[in-house]
Amino acid sequence: MRAKEKENHEKYVDLIALAKKYPNKTSKVPAFARLIQKLETDLAPALAMDIQAQQSTKGLTQEKNQIYSVVKTGVDRLCRLIIGYATDADNVVLLSDLNTLKTKFGKAKQADFASVCTDIITEVRKLSEHWADYGITEKGVSDVEKKLLVFKEKAPKNKEMKQVTKKAVKKRGEFFEKSSDTNKQILNISTAFMGQDDEFYEDILAAMKIGKRGPVMPQIKLIIKTGETQKPVEDQKARISGTDIVEKTNKKGEIRFKLNKKGTVDIEIPLPNGEVKIQKDVEVKRGKTTTVIVLI
């Protein structure tokens, strides 16, 4: 459900962005423009909560990473110094234990980091009588311990992140429920763009991810022009061969044939002298508009 809600959320963000990009086109169908406004209002709380979740997660993660870096540097220094002591003292057992801890320390993920650091500091504490010879001070060790404690205390704040994320998911779910009727209305009303602006209609379907649910109606865009002047021919009839589909060109010399299957078709264009010009093997692709220019 969450994946569907997220996809639904992103789909409408794209649709609103499309409507804002082409306000002149959107305004041609007032009912569609009103639905987009309603959609934007309904979506606003979910968007706001998403942004809050992102900012919260980013802020807490950055803070924790900074402390992690400071602790890592301090513990690494202590570990190297105490390894120096073990080497000089020729303490093979201690040296082996410390090298094992240092390897763990180097590979530790943040989840295991605190426990490995604690083990290293414990070993350092055991050898406090030798600190002075190796440049280790009580203040230096205490500072690292304090930072490590702060690092540990930041861990519960991960719950804070989860709570904000949970709220964002809840808001997205509420919008998902609220938008189901709006979705149907948009799909119904957006058909008003068919014929007057087919490309924008296809953009709407693409924004709403309709392509994933089923094919967009294949179309042929036929443009008829005069052979001599290349001017559009208005009121020129054309027919898909073997069918009753007959259309007339508009002022731009254009016809849109909306078909229900892919493949190839022939287009018949009756000429004033009684002859019929045939445009053969026009390819019809699923979900695509094929543009054909014919000179007569």
Provide the structure class.
Answer: alpha+beta
- Taking pLDDT < 50 over at least 5 consecutive residues as the criterion, the unreliable ranges are 211-215
> Rounded to an integer, what's the Rg over CA atoms?
35 Å
Shape: elongated
Characteristics:
296 residues; alpha+beta; Immunoglobulin-like; 8 helices; 60% helix
Give me a quick take on this structure:
The chain is α+β, with helices and mostly antiparallel strands and 296 residues long. The protein has helices spanning 2-21, 23-26, 30-88, 92-107, 110-126, 138-154, 157-190, 198-207, and strands spanning 219-225, 237-240, 246-248, 254-258, 263-270, 276-284, 289-295.
If you had to describe this structure to a student in words, what would you say it looks like?
The protein has 296 residues and is an alpha+beta fold. The protein folds into two domains: 214 residues, no CATH class; 80 residues, Immunoglobulin-like (Sandwich). It is built from eight helices and seven strands; from the N terminus they run ααααααααβββββββ. It has a four-stranded antiparallel beta sheet with strand order 3-2-5-6, with no helix packed on it. A three-stranded mixed beta sheet has the order 4-1-7, with no helix packed on it. A hairpin with a 5-residue loop joins strand 2 and strand 3. The longest helix is centred in the first third of the chain and has 59 residues. It is elongated.
